[in-house]
Amino acid sequence: MTVLVTIALLFRCLKGLIFLVVFSFLYIPMIILIVYSFNSSRLVTVWADFSVKWYFELINNETLLKAVGLSLSIAAGAATFAVVLGTLAAYAIIRFRGFRGSNLFSFMTTAPLVMPDVITGLALLLLFVGMGQVLGWPKDRGAITIWMAHATFCTAYVTVVISARLRELDKSIEEAALDLGANPLKVFFIITLPMIVPALVSGWLLAFTLSLDDVVIANFVTGPGAMTLPKLIFSKVRLGVDPQVNALATIILLIVGIIGFISWLWMRKAERRRISETRRH
After folding, report:
1. Where are the domains of the chain?
2. What are phi and psi of 39, to 5 degrees?
3. N or C: which terminus of the chain has fewer CB atoms within 10 Å of its end residue's CB?
4. Which pLDDT score, from 0 to 100, does residue 82 have?
5. E strands within the chain?
């Protein structure tokens, strides 16, 4: 009996140690970044005194703020467009499996997931150059081409997220609505769409994060007139990290954390409501 208790305690300690190691590996770099954003020294590796001067200087840094605004607008637009395309693609894959070429369509939709970013960026660059020569548009590569490129590869991720949700839905509810005389379009907007809203939110947040984080594909499809935040930070790292970048990263972490926490609470509440309604019926 003593041996069993000892083994149970060892397993409990081991589980706690694993949790500690994993969370330390994930969050200690973020904590260090936040701490050094309040460092008065310009050298990010040397601690001097506590100061918030980099936050005030960040307000006056027009180049950095312009890059933030461009990145946020591109990420929001790409995520929204990817959700629309991903929803249509996922609905076609799950609800219309019998059409000819459905397997090929499913494979081609999710192929960008395993495609290296360098290959994707080069392919999109050649596409935009060819379009410019044949159609005369786009004449210059900039924010529009970045948005199109990000929407392209983000659609694959959104499709996977929404497909997983559609597979879990009870199809009999949709069939009952069709039997009662509702047309397929009305069934989609009245019944299917509200039930996949948590997946839409998750897909949008994932696409937004991927677009905001991308630097490889953006380097291929952009020109000198469009500087996104990841490109600006990457160029500054070569000469040394600017303390203002730490301050900006801290603000972004705070905003993303708040949005993620609110989204998690909302989706958990919606899921609990769905489960309770399912049990009631």
Report:
1. 50-280
2. -85, 130
3. N
4. 96
5. none
> How large a percentage of the chain has pLDDT more than 70?
95
What's the confidence (pLDDT) of residue 279?
67
Quote the CA–CA distance of 14 and 9 in Å, as a whole number.
Answer: 8
DSSP 59-77: HT-HHHHHHHHHHHHHHHH
Of 101, 83, 105, 114, residue with least CA distance to 202? 83
CA angle 159, 162, 165 (to 5 degrees): 145
Is the distance from CB of 73 to CB of 146 less than 8 angstroms? no
Q: How far, in Å, CA of 64 to CA of 143, rounded?
A: 16
- Tokens coding 129: 């150059």
Question: What residue type is 118 in one-letter code?
Answer: V
74 touches 211 (CB < 8 A):
yes
Counting runs of H as helices and runs of E as strands, what totals does the chain give?
13, 0
- 31-49 mean pLDDT: 82
Tokens of 249: 């990263």
Task: Return the pLDDT at 97.
Answer: 76
Whether 193 and 202 have beta carbons less than 8 Å apart is answered as no
The whole-angstrom separation of Cα 72 and Cα 216 is: 17
Identify residue 117 by its one-letter amino acid code: D
Q: How many residues does the chain have?
A: 281
> Which residues in 53-195 belong to E strands, given as ranges?
none
CATH topology of domain 50-280: MetI-like fold (1.10.3720)
pLDDT in tens, 166-198: 988 878 888 888 888 888 888 898 889 988 988
> Residue type at 276?
S
CA 84 to chain centre: 15
